[in-house]
Amino acid sequence: MAVFSRRVRDIMRESPPTVLPETSCGEALRVMRDFAASAIVVISPDSHPIGILTPGDVVRRIAFLNPAGTPVRDVMSSPVETIHHDDYLFHAIGLMNSSGRSHLPVLDRDGRVTGMLRLRDALTGSMTQVMDLVRRLTHEETIEGLKLIKEAQVAVADALLQDRVPATDIQTLLTHINNDIHRRVQTMILRDLAEEGWGEPPVGFAIIVMGSGGRGESFLHSDQDYGFILMDYPANRCAAVDTYFAEVAKRMSAILDTVGIPTCRGNVTAVNPQWRKSLPQWCRQVDGWLNEPDLRTLRYADIFFDFLHAAGHEPLAISLRQHVSRLARQNHVFLREMQKVQEDHRVALGKFGRLIPEQDPPHRGRINLKYQGLLPLVEAARLLALREGLDHTSTLKRIEALGADGFLSNDEQDYLSDAFRNLTTLILRQQIQDFKSGLETTPYVAPNTLSSREKENLVDSLRAISAFRERIRTEFTGEVF
Asked: What is the CATH number of the domain that holds 27?
């Protein structure tokens, strides 16, 4: 199942030879021979790929058919399918399978060729089950296709968990799939709007996801938590710009809901103007939250501070993250208020290390490990990351960075990282079991279904989180008891 956790960059071959479109076929064949290359990429003068020449192209269009002086532009396959080096391997396999390609040029962040992926290399070790899962995760860009992709998440998570892939890696993959759905929906909507006469987007924009999606910690069946960051624009264009992006948001929320990412009950979507702003407007809004904290703004900040770029113009998200980190680090009053609001979010552990399950139906005898385990840890790591000016949103990366800064000892870092991994494994496993049983997927886990070792590990995890939060309370309040 490595195909679902590995990236294209992990298996791609070195950068292939390239030629310009006016290169002759004879010269192109000489390049292929000299480099012992199975394919060469045809690039534009600015080094972006515009075509590819494979052995199949040579047989079909060159051998005994065209003189050696024929420009390669006349025989290359174009447009060329490409993949980015940090995309997941399964995505590349699905693309090659659907397009009938055996080679994919691999691009870096600037859109230039950095390697070549061959289908034979990508499929090494893959089995029928893997190919079936790849097929289910790479459907066509339609609402029905995206719905099938979303439905396949449970099967993929189950297969990976059975293959002993860490639950945190599975969460990363689930988040990637959800973010990929956001990107595909964006593409569909912009295409439809252009065809309907709305034109192109009036300004560049980025889609950000918040909450667990922003941390890369999605479980099954996450809901919508997303916003838009727009490039700045003159005040006299406000009505036209906002009308366009309000329409994008309306369609996006409707499609996401249809494919299986339900509308957020807290209305944290770009349909709400609160989450649809230009970069300067976002900065002013964050300034207001930090300068006048109340229950409402603290609740917004709790969701927003974990935001991550999902699609569109990434520099906008980077700029906003830098602004948030700089301001939060300087605002001890706001962070203290945030700590006070989170103070009652405690782990399900009583005196003498006893687990405390729910006493009332419908979850009697079970523990909500998301809200009485993960949440206290996620909040504490976020609070310290903001105080220390760290840009990470992943809980594990925040813990690692706090350890690197010397705030956490090696033992504390290990205990807290293990606690996070342990809790995510128990929750994900429970959600898969619930789904297979035809039940609503929840984070409620019954301690009596755990082995003795699992129960001991759970108690140790909750103790580590409790001690961590107590230390934070002391630091922020100065109170020892």
From this structure: 3.10.580.10
